[in-house]
Request: fold
Amino acid sequence: MLSKKITDGTEFVVFDMEWNQPMPGKEYPFDVSRLTGEIIEIGAFKYIYDNGELIYKSSFSTDIAPVKYTKLHYHVKKVTHKKNADLLNGIPFKEAYLAFRDFCGDAILVGWGSSDPSMLKMNLEFFEMDPKLNMFFLDLQPIFSLFAGLQGTQRSVEAAVDFYNIDKNEFFHSATADAHYTGAVFEEIFKHNKPSAVISAISSSSIDPDVPSDFSFVGPECLDGPSAFATSKKFMTTCPLCGSGLNVKIPVFRIRKSQYALLECKEHGELFSRTRVKKNREGNYYAASVLRFATQNDYWLVASKKEEFDKYGEKGKPAPQPEEEENET
Ligand SMILES: [Zn+2]
Reply:
């Protein structure tokens, strides 16, 4: 049964993948945007949660022989230290994936950054296999930032390894080594923090990669900002997955050019919402909104904006600091 509830016996599979990229400028007999990377390696470590700690259970590692991008892209070559000849040692993707999926069982998948599940699904789709992973996925990167007091920043797995003084006896940037390091960081997070706090952060951050988690809305043109904000109201009050009304956890507030809120669908979990009003070339206003299942970064973002709003109001923290660029996606 697919669940993100963590109890004694819950399994986690910490994984990492490497993929090769198309050669720039080369013609391929298919649309390259359907396969922006072809997976060439999967590495994974399985842990069992037991009474406040992670117990290592077993590992999985496989090289995959690419069939579309058979020569290593120079960037991939540089980062992974692989050679073209190494690619020949791999097994077919289908065989590798089925073995990996079998290894995972009912575990919660854990990775560093959010790109691996989407790359995996892209490869499954391209090679005409079932793209449903049927597993929850946890991005450990923002969980690390949260417990390391580095909220809102993105750190590499190597930075996290340094933070906890974990031995660096393997090269980074092989799937197996990076999965190993990510697992070691995961263990440390449990060792250095209250397990109940870690569990609560993990449960609320695990997502189902088989359902869309990010939704956007662009409103019609309006003559002024407030009417533009108003057009997104319906979008921001119903769950994009089931259409039911959302509960309000942090009510809508506006700071500078953005409106934020934290909402909740009883069935699907908490949603981060942000609306910005933009001006088009004709001088008309329109709303651009995002609604997404909240990650640890989103909780931090909305909470820190709320704190700033409570302190300084709609205009935000005043100069001398130049207005901060808000590039979060
Ligand atoms: Zn819902």
Q: What stands out?
A: The chain has a mean pLDDT of 91. Residues 175-192 form the longest helix (18 residues). Residues 11-205 form a domain with the Nucleotidyltransferase; domain 5 fold (CATH 3.30.420.10).
